[in-house]
Amino acid sequence: MPSLRLWCSMPFLTARWEHLAMLQWEVDPAWLAPFVPPGTELDPYEGRHYVSLVGFLFRDTRVLWLPIPFHQNFEEVNLRFYVRRTTPSEVRRGVVFIREIVPLWAVATIARVFYGEPYVSLPMGHAFDDVIHAGWGGVTIEPKRIRYEWQASEGLCSLEVDDLTPAYSTAPGSLEEFITEHYWGYTRVSDRAAREYRVEHPCWKLRSAKIAKAEVPSVELYGEDFVRLLRTPPANAFVCDGSAISVDFGDSVTF
Predict the structure, then answer these.
(1) Predicted pLDDT at 64
(2) What total of structural domains would you count in the chain?
(3) What is the number of other CB atoms lying within 10 angstroms of the CB of residue 167?
(4) HSE-CB for 124 with a 13 A CA cutoff
(5) Cα separation, 182 vs 133, whole angstroms
(6) Could you read off the pLDDT tens digit of each residue along the chain, which spans 255 residues?
(7) Which CA distances in Å does 212 have to 158, 163, 242?
(8) Is the sign of the CA dihedral 9, 242, 183, 31 positive or negative?
(9) Pairing of the two strands 206-215 and 251-254
(10) What is the pLDDT of residue 9?
(11) Which secondary-structure segment (H or E) carries 93?
């Protein structure tokens, strides 16, 4: 029987994340203060604070390397912001989720139980307009439009990006690099403890979105302040094609 140490050295979850649509809004840091876990602090970019509304697909999802029937491919949409934690050896830059939505009850339940994340399960869907290129090097798929939908009690919510540019690498020091290069997740356990876990993935290629919008009427899911904010045009929007990812078990850290 594998030891507990061996289990904990394995990734808890592996998958592919694809068609990541990421919309950013500048936000008053006072709105975020109640959500900041113990031991972390807000992580600004050039003195400004951002929230991101992110939609993407899980593909080939596995828990402890095991595929779970009917729970491998599904959408997620989350609203998140950015924090950091200073340890004796490094500064860990991470994300905190205000709300996470998936269409599968079991996935939402596992995430709440193991990580304390604010998941809910709602009906969801997606639509992609892709351009397929066939050449000597094989077939490549270039996304041009991405849309995610989720059905809340107060109405249909959606995010959409359109008119995407060809893929490019992130520029060092850019807002896009800041948004995508946070590799830790944090959730509040108590007033003096937080759960910390690491998400592994390579640096992603990006595509700028010339058109981006969100329709998020649900005060129940997001609160009045964030609903008002998400009605305004985003300050920045781009798409990541995605990659394989892994999420470790994490640990509870007390302060």
Answers:
(1) 81
(2) 1
(3) 16
(4) 23
(5) 32
(6) 444 444 556 899 999 999 999 999 999 999 999 999 999 999 999 999 999 999 999 999 998 887 887 789 999 999 999 999 999 999 999 999 999 999 999 999 989 998 999 999 999 999 999 887 766 767 777 889 999 999 999 999 999 999 999 999 999 999 999 999 999 999 999 999 999 999 999 999 999 999 999 999 999 999 999 999 999 999 999 999 999 999 999 999 999
(7) 11, 9, 19
(8) negative
(9) unpaired
(10) 67
(11) strand 91-102
Q: Closest by alpha carbon to 245, among 187, 179, 194, 183?
A: 183
- Identity at 6, one-letter amino acid code: L
Question: Could you tell me the two tokens for 24?
Answer: 């950013």
pTM > 0.90: yes
State both tokens at 110. 């596992």
CATH of the domain at 109: 2.40.400.10
Q: What is the pLDDT, as a whole number, of residue 237?
A: 98
Of the candidates 220, 228, 191, 15, the one whose C-alpha atom is nearest the C-alpha of residue 101 is 220
Per the listing, tokens 């934690």 go with 85
Q: Where are the alpha helices (DSSP H) in 116-231?
A: 175-180, 219-222, 224-230
Query: Assign residue 250 a region: left if phi > 0, alpha if psi is -120 to 50, beta otherwise?
Result: left
Please name which of 13, 19, 22, 10 lies closest in space to residue 243, comparing C-alpha atoms: 19
- Decide if 214 contacts 221 (C-beta within 8 A): no
Query: SS3 for 128-146, per residue?
Result: EEEEEEEECCEEEEEEEEE
Q: Which residue has the tokens 């849309």?
A: 147
Q: Which residue's entry shows tokens 């500048």?
A: 26
- Residue-number span of the structural domain to which 150 is assigned: 4-254
